[in-house]
Design a protein that fits this description.
By secondary structure, the protein is α+β, with helices and mostly antiparallel strands. Helices cover about 60% and strands about 15% of the residues. A hairpin with a 2-residue loop joins strand 1 and strand 2.
């Protein structure tokens, strides 16, 4: 992953977690990975102002992450694993894409991307 993209996503998840929006956005499945990400960032940047000011100005933390990741392979690999896992969780969430239309001749129900059982999924009912 490109360092700038990696750092931007890491800071985004970090800020969302610190402000309380990450769990709401990603759900409980992401809690462990968010905690690991925050722990990793605090491990490397706890003494810097970048972390303290991240919610109001995320750019210094992003730049610090880019600099650290370009020189520390272990940090970069750990960060990349966490960000990729959080992206997977974010991308795998079910989208609420449900539609039902009724006509004089019947009803059409669509429940796209549903992994469970839906009665009448993608079926047309006619009188």
């Amino acid at each position: 992953m490109i360092l700038e993209t990696l750092a931007g996503k890491a800071v985004g998840y970090f800020v969302d977690n610190v402000t309380g929006g990450a769990l709401e956005k990603l759900g409980a499945d992401a809690k462990d990975y968010l905690q690991r990400l925050v722990g990793l960032i605090y491990t490397y940047f706890s003494s810097g102002q970048e972390v303290q000011q991240a919610t109001s100005n995320p750019n210094p933390l992003k730049e610090a992450i880019i600099q650290k990741a370009s020189t520390n392979v272990d940090f970069r690999e750990d960060l990349e694993k966490l960000v990729k896992k959080l992206e997977e969780i974010e991308n795998s969430q079910l989208s609420v894409n449900f539609s039902q239309s009724s006509t004089g001749e019947g009803a059409n129900i669509k429940a796209d991307k549903n992994t469970g059982n839906v009665a009448g999924r993608d079926q047309n009912f006619r009188n």
